[in-house]
Design brief:
The complex is a heterodimer of chains A (520) and B (415). Chain A is of the alpha/beta class. Chain A contains 14 helices and 16 strands. In chain A, the strands form 2 sheets. In chain A, strands 1, 2, 3, 4, 5, 14, 15 and 16 form an 8-stranded mixed β-sheet that branches. In chain A, strands 6-7-8-9-10-11-12-13 form an 8-stranded mixed β-sheet, sandwiched between helices. In chain A, helix 5 runs antiparallel to helix 6. Classes of the chains: A alpha/beta (520), B alpha/beta (415).
Chain lengths: 520, 415
């Protein structure tokens, strides 16, 4: 019921009263925050030759060197070891005593460089679902190297990321792997087409896409078409090589017969050769027609056959027809070869099992992306040798397909011997990757395994472990210098090196902080 | 017949008596206590009697027969308080049929109440208890300028909302400014710009002032020779009059500096006080102004950039505000985040907050924003025994909540 009170006062007078009684803050800006920005160092690393000396080197290759030394030259790790490693003349010596040095962290699923502001379409390059089959889309074509999100991630220790073009539709494109430094995408790319993304589960569209049955049917049809396309291509290259062989032989034959003919009869050969030329022109015309328009008439094709026959009779074989280029299927052929991992988005147990079926049916290198229920089939995944890109660790039972979400997912996969990495699936807060690994530890994951999941094991799953993921001779010099335990939010990243270059620890966020922080 | 009636009476009686779960007295012994109101106590004891904190300190004598819990190696802090939750009004799993948190039929819906839409079977409640959270404010969403009334809940494991409500907690009102209301109501032909946000908000309060004046006139004149006709009852205006009269605490969802300042202008014009800004990602830009007015700020540790008005969000926001003397809450606005608010606070520390402030940002500061600081928010004698027991320091990434108590009742134990 309405409260009847003595409110006769005019609001303005109330405001005056409020102003008078407003508590005058006596707090002076005594709590000035000091953050150290490492822009300049005594040690000059610009020559590209430097040594990190005295820190605890966590190589992620089986050894940790307390008081270790790492030598870097031309962006590569030249040597790593304990006190036995001498620092050659000309190498800038950087003392990192008291700190840990780890390989730069790798986030195996992000949207970095594609999203600036989620809700502003013009600053968002995530693929839409107009066509559910778009495996030809490449994240690499949309990355903005000047994104203000990239520095935020790298000053927190993440140096390499898989960039996912989106998980809409069924085949949503090809993920790129980038190092998080560089003015041009080409300077950042580690792999342009690192993974093929296939999405199972609740993220469907309309029509026949609206059920798992419909989606699986379309996926199978697409893979089947890719298989046939591949067979067609294989057949073509076989035929082509046969053709080349034959032509070579025919050319040799012609040369010998011509030589013979030339020496035998010079006058009669003229007419013959002009006749052959005519035939050649005819043949190339009809081939062009057949290639250009998919629906060439019966007449045309019969003509072509005839002319082909004529030519074959005249010992000139017809070049084989290449399959008309289909970029979608072309992209999937690499998946069928097992060359490129297929990241299959799957949360629910039955979707994970569908991914295993697809692996068997089409000999794919399947990696389970997210894998919310993966812990329920951990033994099977281990047996099948299927890796899981877990996470985010904080996946919740917030949708029907994630009702089985458990913080202990990573720990259980680890126990079963499944190869897995931990991902953020983030953009603005990729920086939280190590803390997500820490949360997995709180929920039973071994700490070393947690570190591997954001370094060497992430590199293995992405297929770049020959160059990334550990501190070893010959690998790319992506290195971070950490004060404290890298998995703890209260620790700090002191220095970051990407491809052997030191990164200034600045970001747009730190600029805002500097602009608005209180000053004495 | 008679026996049957007696049985029925007994049954009804039992039902009346059953609902309240009574707490058992107990003491946690040998733990590191973080009382928030004072320095940490090593090897401390906290003794709980009748659901209240009876004693706390290093040398506490616990009466014989009282159940004791070995707290060695454990860390004990007050139950965590979250001023921004949509648990129950946007329950899991997400479904259109479950989306009850935004009454987006009009930009002004001050009369609707979150408590009328709380779904108690939301699995998020149990997960929040497992995160040491004991008190939350459930708000309507931010689609409307005046979204409706909030409800403060204690996360008791009970069967009805009545038993969950924080008895005696002041009423709250959710308001929102900036992108959300103008985006939502453009399709309802009500607002399509920030100008519209301010204009419609002002119109609402101006109408409430007139409504109040009419009732005052009616009340004064009804027993005289010149009575006026009784004004029509309007539930929207009733609520806004209570806001104007300072009977409802106002919590405003707002991001950008100019939106924050616009809200301050309107609150000045109509003479109501703000309890808190919610999210307030650009509050760091006007910290001294907010400190002067003693307005609390509830925000995330590091969310930013998800929309244009969140693009200047920086993770140092909470630290800068706390250092300026502003009461801060590390809030969740998420049934995910609410489970790890201690972890979120540890990230605020990474970006410059001190540990004492970070603890307060989870406990006594949010308690004071909700007006329940006399009951909860610190481990002090006489306060409700709302307690979270951790395996490691709450700000250690490897920590887990072992037990949660509300009013001395164990509502969560890790298996």
């Amino acid at each position: 019921m309405i409260s009847v009170t003595k409110h006769t006062e005019y609001p303005r007078r109330k405001i005056e009263k409020m102003k008078q009684s407003a508590r005058v803050s006596l707090l002076k800006p005594l709590c000035l925050l000091i953050i150290t920005i490492h822009g300049l160092h005594a040690e000059d690393t610009r020559s590209g030759k430097f040594a990190l000396v005295g820190g605890s080197v966590v190589t992620m290759a089986g050894r940790t060197y307390e008081a270790g030394t790492i030598l870097v030259d031309e962006g590569k790790i030249i040597d790593v070891g304990g006190s036995e490693v001498d620092v050659p003349f000309k190498y800038a010596k950087i003392d990192v005593k008291g700190f840990s040095i780890l390989p730069g962290l790798i986030d195996s699923n992000t949207h970095l460089g594609l999203i600036e502001i989620d809700m502003e379409p013009d600053s968002r390059e995530i693929s839409k679902i107009d066509d559910p089959i778009m495996p030809q889309i490449r994240a690499a074509d949309g990355i903005n190297p000047a994104s203000s999100l990239i520095p935020v991630a790298r000053i927190n220790g993440i140096t390499t990321a898989m960039v996912n073009p989106g998980e809409n539709g069924l085949f949503s494109g090809q993920g790129a792997i980038i190092d998080l430094a560089g003015d041009l995408v080409s300077d950042m790319l580690v792999e342009t087409s690192a993974v093929i993304l296939l999405n199972l589960g609740d993220s469907g569209g309309g029509g026949s896409l609206s059920s798992r049955m419909g989606r699986m049917a379309i996926i199978r049809e697409t893979f089947q078409r890719a298989k046939e396309y591949k067979a067609h291509k294989d057949r073509f290259s076989e035929e082509l090589s046969r053709f080349e062989k034959k032509r070579k032989m025919a050319a040799e034959n012609t040369r010998t017969s011509e030589k013979n003919a030339a020496s035998a009869d010079k006058a009669g050969s003229k007419d013959e050769s002009s006749e052959r030329k005519e035939g050649e022109t005819k043949k190339s015309d009809s081939t062009a027609a057949g290639n250009g328009a998919g629906a060439s008439s019966k007449e045309d094709s019969s003509k072509k056959e005839d002319s082909g026959k004529d030519l074959a009779d005249k010992e000139e074989p017809l070049p084989p027809m290449p399959p008309s280029l289909d970029l979608k299927l072309e992209s999937l052929v690499r998946a069928l070869d097992g060359k490129v991992p297929v990241f299959v988005r799957a949360h629910r147990l039955d979707d994970i099992l569908r991914a295993i079926e697809l692996k068997r049916e089409y000999k794919l290198n399947v990696v389970i992306n997210h894998g919310t229920d993966a812990y329920k089939v951990a033994a099977q995944l281990a047996k099948e040798g299927i890796a899981v890109v877990v996470g985010p660790i904080n996946t919740q039972p917030d949708s029907f397909e994630t009702l089985g979400a458990s913080y202990a997912n990573a720990a259980k996969l680890s126990e079963a011997g499944v190869l897995f990495s931990i991902q953020t699936e983030d953009d603005h807060n990729v920086r939280n990757l190590p803390f997500m690994a820490g949360l997995a530890c709180a929920n039973g994951l071994d700490r070393d395994e947690a570190l591997r999941s954001i370094t060497i094991n992430a590199a293995k799953i992405l297929g770049i472990d020959d160059r990334y993921g550990s501190i070893e001779k010959g690998k790319v010099a992506n290195l971070i210098v950490v004060k404290g335990d890298v998995l703890q939010p209260r620790s700090s990243i002191e220095r970051v090196f990407i491809r052997g270059k030191e990164i200034a620890l600045g970001s747009r966020q730190l600029e805002l902080y500097e602009k608005f922080r209180p000053r004495n | 017949m008679c026996v049957k009636s007696v049985t029925l009476v007994l049954l009804v009686g039992a039902l009346i008596w059953l609902p309240r779960v009574h707490s058992e007295d107990f003491a946690i012994i040998g733990a590191t206590l973080l009382p928030v109101s004072s320095d940490p106590i090593e090897g401390g004891t906290i003794y709980v009697k009748n659901g209240k904190i009876e004693a706390i300190g290093q040398n506490i004598q616990v009466p014989e027969g009282v159940k004791t819990i070995d707290g060695s190696g454990r860390w004990v802090m007050p139950g965590i308080i979250d001023t921004h939750s949509h648990m129950g009004v946007y329950p899991w799993p997400w479904a259109e049929a479950h989306a009850d948190g935004n009454e987006m039929i009009h930009a002004l819906t001050p009369h609707v109440r979150a408590e009328d839409a709380v779904f108690l079977e939301d699995p998020a409640f149990e997960r929040a208890r497992a995160g040491g959270v004991t008190t939350v404010q459930v708000l309507p969403g931010s689609g409307n300028l005046q979204g409706g009334q909030t409800v403060v809940l204690k996360l008791r494991s009970v069967n009805t909302l009545e038993e969950m409500k924080f008895e005696g907690a002041p009423r709250g009102m959710k308001m929102a400014f900036g992108e959300n209301p103008k985006r939502v109501h453009v399709i309802r032909d009500q607002i399509m710009s920030r100008m519209g946000n301010s204009a419609v908000m002002r119109t609402g309060f101006r109408q409430a002032q007139e409504y109040r004046a009419k009732w005052e006139q009616y009340t004064i004149l009804q027993d005289t020779d010149h009575p006026v006709s009784r004004p029509d009852y309007d539930p929207k205006m009733e609520t806004l009059v209570d806001v104007l009269d300072g009977k409802i605490r106002v919590h405003v969802h707002c991001y950008r500096k100019d939106d924050l300042l616009a809200v301050l202008r309107i609150s000045d014009e109509f003479g109501f006080k703000l309890a808190s800004f919610q999210h307030g990602l650009e509050c760091y830009k006007i910290a001294s102004e907010l400190a002067k007015r003693d307005i609390g700020v509830a925000t995330w540790a590091d969310w930013w950039g998800f929309k244009l008005e969140a693009f200047d969000g920086i993770p140092q926001n909470a630290a800068l505000l706390a250092n300026a003397g502003i009461r801060v809450n590390i809030h969740s606005d998420s049934s995910d985040g609410v489970q790890r608010l201690f972890h979120e606070a540890s990230k605020a520390i990474r970006y410059g907050m001190n540990e004492d402030h970070a603890l307060k940002a989870l406990t006594i500061w949010p308690a004071s924003m909700l007006g329940v600081e006399d009951r909860v928010g610190s481990l002090d004698v006489g306060k409700d025994a709302d307690i979270a027991v951790f395996s490691h320091h709450p700000f250690d990434v490897y920590t887990l909540v072992q037990q949660t108590f509300i009013d001395g009742v164990n509502v969560y134990s890790r298996k």
